Amino acid sequence: MDIFDTNWWKGTSKGRTGLIPSNYVAEQAESIDNPLHEAAKRGNLSWLRECLDNRVGVNGLDKAGSTALYWACHGGHKDIVEMLFTQPNIELNQQNKLGDTALHAAAWKGYADIVQLLLDKGARTDLRNNEKKLAFDMATNAACASLLKKKQGTDAVRTLSNAEDYLDDEDSD
């Protein structure tokens, strides 16, 4: 039998490698439209590195208009966010079809460490989504709200938000 015989496939299971008759195998290759986005959503650093090594566009948009950075922030994957920041020309302030940015996602999900990273990189706090909400308005905990409030400064115009409720609760302790 020739090693390149198409009637046989090489397979590995539980650390053992062997040959399998091709008629025993059904190929089920999954097609992924946005591999970088999927790696970011899943928090899969090695897959993300592979995508970046293969020059997958770091600012590409999925069908919702979101970037991989948005999905990394949405999922709370700080290591993925940090890896994406190593890429030149990463777009911090891309708004998806709902008008949300990576900062909106991190604030809404309550990831203060990621909010801080985004702010340190220069993410804009003045962008409003389609519901006219700032990232500050979407903050769901006091830590995120406090970081965003400091960054916005006192001259930002705000409406009453969940974030202010959390800050009021924190101040009353």
Give a brief description.
Helices cover 43% and strands 7% of the residues. With 173 residues, the protein is mainly α. It has a single domain (34-171), classed as Alpha Horseshoe (Serine Threonine Protein Phosphatase 5, Tetratricopeptide repeat), CATH 1.25.40.20.
The end-to-end span amounts to 77 Å
Total number of beta strands = 2
Helix/strand structural class: mainly alpha
Q: Which stretches are poorly predicted, pLDDT < 50 over at least 5 residues?
A: 154-160
Helix content: 40-55%
Number of domains: 1
Major beta sheet summary: 2 strands, antiparallel
Along the chain, the helix and strand elements come as: EEHHHHHHHHH
Outline: elongated
GO biological process, one term: signal transduction
Protein name: Osteoclast-stimulating factor 1
Function: Induces bone resorption, acting probably through a signaling cascade which results in the secretion of factor(s) enhancing osteoclast formation and activity.
InterPro entries: Ankyrin_rpt (IPR002110), Ankyrin_rpt-contain_sf (IPR036770), SH3-like_dom_sf (IPR036028), SH3_domain (IPR001452)
